[in-house]
Amino acid sequence: MRLSFPQLLARIGFSALAAIIGILFALPLIWFIFAPFNARAELGIAIPDPWTLQNFLTVFGNGFAMRGLLNSLIQSVGGVILVAAAATLAAYALSRSSIPGKSIVTYVLLLFSSVVSGTAAMVPIFLIVSSVGLMDTHIAVILVFAGGLLPTAMFILRDFIDGIPKTYEESAMVAGASPVQAFFDVALPVIRPGIVVVVVWAFVNIWGSFLIPFILLRSDDLMPSSVAIYSFYSEAGTPIVTLLAAYSLIYSLPVVALYLFVSWKFGFRFFGGIKA
Amino acid sequence: MASVEFQNVTKSFGTFNAVSDISFKVADGEFICLLGPSGCGKTTSLRMIAGLETPSSGKIMIGPDDVTHLHPKDRQISMVFQDYALYPHMNLADNIAYPLKVRGESVEKRHKRAKEVADVLKIGDLLNRLPSQISGGQQQRTSLARALVYPSRVYLFDEPLSNLDAKLRLEARGFLNHLQRDMGMTAVYVTHDQAEAMALATRIAVMDRGRIVQFAPPIEIYRRPATTFVANFVGNPPMNMIPVEGTVDGERLQLRAHGVLVRDLPISQGIKAALGKGAGLTLGVRPEHLSMGTINDVNMVSGKLFANENMGPEKLVTFERQDGGRVTARIFTDDAVETTENVAFTFDGAHATLFDAEGKRIPADGEMPL
Ligand SMILES: Nc1ncnc2c1ncn2[C@@H]1O[C@H](COP(=O)(O)OP(=O)(O)O)[C@@H](O)[C@H]1O
Ligand SMILES: [Mg+2]
């Protein structure tokens, strides 16, 4: 096919625009990869000369920041387990049972969840947590995250389970399985790809969250990385770019690793039903 | 094996009765087909036997036990689902052996048994595959194997062949018939395909809008359809239905379609009773009972040629009568239809069925069971 001159011009223009936008998005990432290995990193992009691990060594020496990574892991994993387990059971019940008005329940919860995890609810959450006596504990952070993420997780999973034919469990029960056996043997493995999506989504949410742990925790040795990252700011509030870059890279690795692991193990693909 | 009995079973969803007050009994070793158009309540009835739906009222018995409120797992039954319901994460061996797993059999024992059943069904060398890696016909046999792998009192089938292509369907149908003869299983088989029901059933329950309209052996359903609905549903092409006006002339009844005399027969007790409901009757004639004739014959229908379809050993000749109604005849391929304007066919009065004004079949006097 031959293009007319104006068409050709339009194509070139469009491609150029797309390239510029692409570069704009790529720049921070390039910085993110180069800066940690540069002893003189600044906010501009520069190829490290020489490449060095000095930034990382300094970061590893910062006990508060290292402890933060562990705390992030405790809070994220705890929250993810709670969200995934509770959302799976709740979504399964909401999808399979014939409770009247069950979809209203889901929508109301979904509506409130944006309130619960929102900034507006911070004062009441603070009051509740402190009156229950859970202030400054991992449990408090985990519970508040779970409460905020659960409705959306339930919504995602319910939708997923609705799409799975009931006949899987029905055939298991006719074959002699109890409802619990049918759930664990047949339903759960089929739902697993949906659960994996929720796990990744919840992990990323908790891992990157700043406000909730910042408000609910006091002790330095409980703070997650999202808070601990502020130890790489000078007294005056200016970032120490070199260390910040190195720590950021370390901080982002678990999320990347989780994505890689999940896509290797589960491929982000779904079994679905068997089509005839 | 065991018998199955429905006692005045009704199942309603909200205000809608999917199954209305049906009662029937399946004897031990019988193969029953529930036949009817889509939405008539076949699946719902079957699921109530399985325990996947609970009747709104009435009672269901399996053998001597009232199972109306029993959990499916405690009913000792097998079911083959329309979508096969094979577990996508288990290979065929584990799929087939799953019922044995929940019965607490050891791994060796259940894989040995799965292999035996799979070999009978010719899927023995696919046992390591996942359900997504085998063909539709093989999936169907896998779901059958899973139903056969453990001893059951009743076997339930919900349109198990409807997802297969025509050739595989015939093959599977033959196999099911063989299996029934071999095992003498009690089976309830749901289908909307009348040929399947004819081929497999010892008795057919024809359902319409949540009710059973006729429950009889296939031959009786075919030869003596209880209502015009059954006559229309069973047989391919279906029975020809000719609306006729009945007039009494002495001791004889004359049937006219648009003034043209179609048939003249002696009045029986049944006809007398039927005429009480109205003179608008329906004459039913199966396509194979029509043969080529002339305008002057008795028991004659005629009209303009509409279609002439060659089927191999036979052909289907369809013509349009004066009132626009169509009649199809099944005749030998070598019988030539000479004219197109006034095609005439005669039928043997003994094979014609008369339905009263309400669409119910009028029995002949002293009719013997078939
Ligand atoms: N769970 C249900 N809720 C509401 N209506 C249903 C349900 N299951 C079946 N029905 C209705 O009951 C009728 C009979 O359904 P079904 O037994 O599946 O018919 P068939 O198998 O003969 O095609 C249909 O009109 C269907 O829409
Ligand atoms: Mg059905």
UniProtKB/TrEMBL annotation, chain A:
It is found in: Cell membrane. The keyword Magnesium does not apply. Pfam families: BPD_transp_1 (PF00528). This is ABC transporter permease. Its main location: membrane. Keywords: Cell membrane, Membrane, Transmembrane, Transmembrane helix, Transport. It is a multi-pass membrane protein. One of its GO terms (cellular component) is plasma membrane.
